[in-house]
Amino acid sequence: MAIEKVKAYFEDLGESDRILTFAESTATVELAAEAVGVTPGHIAKTLSFLVDGKPLLVVLAGDARMDNHKFKEAFHKKGRMIPADDVEALVGHAPGGVCPFCVKEDVPVYLDTSLHAYETVYPAAGDDHSAVRMTPEELYAFAHASGWVDIHKE
């Protein structure tokens, strides 16, 4: 189970107290914000794309919307969302719990600059009943991000 990998990852780092688990679902930005007790913008949503047939993850603030033109400028290719049935096989996490930690090898993770609007953000922890508390800078480090991009609509 993906959450077990994420829990083990944070435990190995001595950071297991960051993981929050909930009885209620955190599968959507709205549900996660309600469970955590924050505004939707504080939820760090991870979107899964295929670019040239290869998976790519981008983490945005929960209230940010993606700008397709900016995506193409940032990655020099048009991306398309990975079909829900293929996400787990390509990324390593099922929809509702996709997060930037413990993803399959060779899946790059990028963070969108929309996250800078928040002091604390909450990405999922590998399932649809979890979140991880951290700053955007910590998220960059813990996710081993490949870089920052600006692909959100203003």
Give the SSE layout:
Layout: H1 2-12, E1 19-21, H2 29-36, E2 43-51, E3 54-61, H3 68-75, E4 80-81, H4 84-91, E5 109-112, E6 122-123, E7 130-132, H5 136-142, E8 147-149
Parallel strand pairs: 2-6, 3-5, 5-8
Antiparallel strand pairs: 1-7, 2-3, 2-4
What are the secondary-structure elements, in order, as H or E? HEHEEHEHEEEHE
Tell me the radius of gyration: 14 Å
- Report the end-to-end length measured between terminal Cα atoms: 37 Å
Report the sheet-strand fraction: 15-25%
Helix run count: 5
Write up this protein.
This protein has 154 residues and is α/β, with parallel strands linked by helices. The protein is 27% helix and 22% strand. It has 5 helices and 8 strands, in the order H-E-H-E-E-H-E-H-E-E-E-H-E. The chain has helices at residues 2-12, 29-36, 68-75, 84-91, 136-142, and strands spanning 19-21, 43-51, 54-61, 80-81, 109-112, 122-123, 130-132, 147-149. The strands form 2 sheets. Strands 2, 3, 4, 5, 6 and 8 form a 6-stranded mixed β-sheet that branches. A two-stranded antiparallel ribbon has the order 1-7. The radius of gyration is 14 Å and the shape is globular. The termini are far apart. The relative contact order is 0.25.
List keywords for this structure.
5 helices; alpha/beta; 6-stranded mixed sheet; 154 residues
Give a summary of the structure in a few sentences.
The chain has 154 residues and is an alpha/beta fold. It has helices at 2-12, 29-36, 68-75, 84-91, 136-142, and strands at residues 19-21, 43-51, 54-61, 80-81, 109-112, 122-123, 130-132, 147-149.
